[in-house]
Amino acid sequence: AQTVTQSQPEMSVQEAETVTLSCTYDTSESDYYLFWYKQPPSRQMILVIRQEAYKQQNATENRFSVNFQKAAKSFSLKISDSQLGDAAMYFCAYRSTLLTDSWGKLQFGAGTQVVVTP
Amino acid sequence: DGGITQSPKYLFRKEGQNVTLSCEQNLNHDAMYWYRQDPGQGLRLIYYSQIVNDFQKGDIAEGYSVSREKKESFPLTVTSAQKNPTAFYLCASSIERSSYEQYFGPGTRLTVT
User: Best mutation site among A106, A107, A113 for testing chain B: the one with the most B CBs within 10 Å?
Assistant: First the structure.
């Protein structure tokens, strides 16, 4: 079974600065998807960014970018020019592409709380 | 507006009672999911359904039951057999099982005392 590990329970960043969240995962599969979800105080889960494992190019979405290191099984999220609205819990998630019973299931890490200070 | 609704937002029950959490979507999605979230943990999959009248157990299905009689609805029943039912419950859906993106509802906070 795949596992997703987020080793940083909390990260603090000043407005306009950059913060990087770490995520590692364990899998024997070669093709899969990785995601970062944001959960603000409203607790609504919002997809921030996704990465397909077969793509070497790192995904970017505006101020959010990832550093995908497939061999190291690492998938970090960088938030640039941090804003107060970025304050939230961030979850890393893994999804297999294999045709097994768990196909479509998201495997989540424990989350990293991002605190943004003015 | 299309989306996923979960009701109620907060739910309180006495120990030993079954309780049903509602999840409705008007996105015309085939696949639907139920997740449980506990403090300090990520989301864990309880049940999922690919199509109407079909559903499979996730990682923590014990003490829960579901039905999928309509495409739009995927209610979750928390039974008295669930040892620690107090948690935040999130429903999600995707266009189909192969879709990479899951859309989440606002969640229901269940407290059992």
Answer: A106
B10 and A CB contact within 8 Å:
no
DSSP state string for B77-98: EE-TT-S---EEEEEEEESSTT
Radius of gyration of chain B (CA): 13
Question: Within an 8 Å CB–CB cutoff, is residue A54 touching chain B?
Answer: no
CB nearest B42 (choices: A104, A105, A108) = A108
Are the Cβ atoms of A95 and B43 closer than 8 angstroms? Answer: no
Query: Are B48 and B76 a contacting pair, CB within 8 Å?
Result: no
Which of A9, A43, A101 comes nearest B106 by C-beta? A43
Mean model confidence pLDDT for chain A: 93
Amino acid A102: pLDDT: 59
pLDDT band at B50 (very low <50, low <70, confident <90, very high): confident
A104 chain-B contacts, CB cut-off 8 A: 31, 33, 48, 50, 94, 97-99
DSSP string, A81-111: S--GGG-EEEEEEEEE-SSSTTTT-EEE---
pLDDT band at A100 (very low <50, low <70, confident <90, very high): low
Closest CA to B100 of A50, A26, A101: A50
β-strands B108-112, B10-13: how paired?
A: parallel
pLDDT at A38: 97
One-letter identity of residue B28: N
